[in-house]
Amino acid sequence: MKGTNLSNSSLFQANLEGANLTGADLEGANLNDAHLYNAIFYSTVMPDGSIRDDDC
């Protein structure tokens, strides 16, 4: 899912465990109850517009 534009998407209860979200745009997305265990966040735009850069 690298570089994917998921802005304003409904990802309610989505299983994103282990997903590579490097460079993804999640601004405005609904991540309520999403499963994000071991997901990779690097230069990822989060729902609130902030940039998340976890250690890779």
Structure described in brief:
This protein is mostly beta strands and 56 residues long.
Walkthrough of the structure:
The protein has 56 residues and is mostly beta strands. 0% of the residues lie in helices and 12% in strands. The chain contains no helices and 2 strands. A hairpin with a 5-residue loop joins strand 1 and strand 2. The mean pLDDT is 95.
Main sheet specs: 2 strands, antiparallel
Tell me the structural class: mainly beta
> How would you state the average pLDDT, rounded?
95
| Secondary structure tally: strands | 2
SSE arrangement:
Elements (H helix, E strand, L loop, with lengths): L41 E4 L5 E3 L3
Task: For this entry, give a set of tags.
mainly beta; 0% helix; single chain; 56 residues
